[in-house]
Amino acid sequence: MTQAVRHDSMRARNLGLVLGEVRRSGPVTRAALAEITGLTKTTVSKMVGDLLDAGMVTETGTLRDGERGRPGTAVSLSGGRVAALGLEINVDYLSACVVDLALTVRLRYTQAVDNRAASPVETLARLQKLIHRAVDEARAAGLVIAGSTLAVPGPVNGGLLHSAPNLGWHDVRVGDLLETGGEPPGVEVENEANLAALGELWFGTGHGDFLHVSGEIGIGAGLVVGGALFRGARGLAGELGHVVVSPDGPACRCGGRGCLEQYAGQEALLRAAGLPAPAPRTAPEATSPDDAVATSGTPAAPGGVAELVGRLRDGDGPALEACARAGRALGIALTSATHLLDPGTIVLGGVFAPLFPWISGPVRDTMTGRLTAMRHAVPEIAVSRLGADAATLGAAGQVIHRVIADPGLHLAAARAVPAPR
Ligand SMILES: [Zn+2]
Fold first, then answer.
1. Are residues 128 and 275 in the same domain?
2. Engineered SS bond to 221: which of 68, 226, 238, 369, CB 3.0-4.6 Å?
3. Is 415 domain-assigned?
């Protein structure tokens, strides 16, 4: 290693150390940063100067260091310039969100569209329009997009989406089909359920070691252990929807039989309640990014699930029985998951969030009946506050956490941002 390379890698490491500490302890003075990180005051001042120039930190008044310490100017993380783009392709919608360095959600879009009727190329062309809109609006707000992660409804390893049975996609290099023209610089592809679990950790109710269950057309799960995602040997962990709850049950798209998805997936639920599957808008005007709905909170449950919730509120018998049956099946799958993984909390997200008042009881009863002989307590069953937004938030959050770990890679781009219009 040459001296120059050594110096560069040392500087990158120190920048990450300082910014990480500002995130954890801010507002914090340069003197306190030097004490915590073990770096010299001169080095800390240089690093803070570079981070101030890049708009990643901001000065926020004075603080005294300890009882006898001299007052110094405190610095905090700034969300004013650097941001990340979170994206999601799911079976019946596309969504995007922009999250800044302080993990504040700045923009959010959802577009209802039936991606089952489209090829990967068509779907990615639609997504591209959404990306352009998000990047343009972020730029108008004075933000630079440091990177992007795309959530997809199937197992991913090394950028390859192995299969998304509910979309009919197999072995698709999704990132290669996106032509973003360098904005954002590179799009990483990751499983939707994994990102939803991270979204829950950073923006929602997830804490400690927990399992997040994503109920969509398919059912996925993400396990967070010690603040990090457990991905499995090949990145394929968490396929809860294909855990068998009845060995002789109905055939599943995965090639197996009696999978959880056949009892508690969105289509199975609606069918059991006597409701048609939702028909997402596919008219040409609906595919324009201008029709994407900018949302400011958790969106209403999509199509058929909203109708199901209405019937549940009215005490409709078939709807209540469909939820009870789905809840029992989910409880059986989660009993197995608990024996295997011992999570502290299980967070029910996606469509299970709006259905929580009706589905959580049967889940809890099933688990309690099967687990209490061996355990003092069953895992807490909690509702996701993020619902369908969890995956896009996790996708953006993942980029932000990487920027904070290695801000040096993004200093030049952040410094070059023009003032907001
Ligand atoms: Zn299956």
1. no
2. 238
3. no
Same domain, residue pair 218 and 342:
yes
Domain range enclosing 22: 3-78
Mean pLDDT of the 23-34 span? 92
Are 314 and 372 part of one and the same domain?
A: yes
Alpha carbon of 304 to ligand 1 centroid (Å): 22
In tens, the pLDDT along 387-398 reads 889 999 999 999
C-alpha 244 – ligand 1 centre gap (Å): 8
More confident residue, 288 or 102: 102
The first and second tokens of residue 401, run together, are 């956490």
How far is ligand 1, taken at its centre, from the CA of residue 333, in Å? Answer: 13
Residues 267 and 355 in one domain: yes
Does 176 map to a domain?
yes
Number of domains observed in the structure of the chain: 3
Maximum pairwise Cα distance, the chain: 74
Cα 262 to averaged position of ligand 1 atoms, centre (Å): 8
CATH number for the domain including 60? Answer: 1.10.10.10
Instruction: Tally the residues of the chain.
Output: 421
For residue 415, which phi and psi values (nearest 5 degrees)?
A: -70, -30
Nearest to 272 by CA among 302, 331, 312: 312
**How far apart are the C-alpha atoms of 393 and 262, rounded to whole Å?**
28
Predicted pLDDT of residue 403: 96
pLDDT tens readout for residues 107-160: 999 998 888 878 999 999 999 999 999 999 999 999 999 999 999 988 888 888
**What is the spatial distance between Cα 92 and Cα 62, in angstroms, rounded to a whole number?**
50
For residue 254, how far is its CA from the centre of ligand 1 (angstroms)? Answer: 4
Q: How far is the CA of 267 from the centre of ligand 1 (A)?
A: 13
CA of 165 to the centre of ligand 1 (A): 9
Predicted TM-score of the model (pTM): 0.86
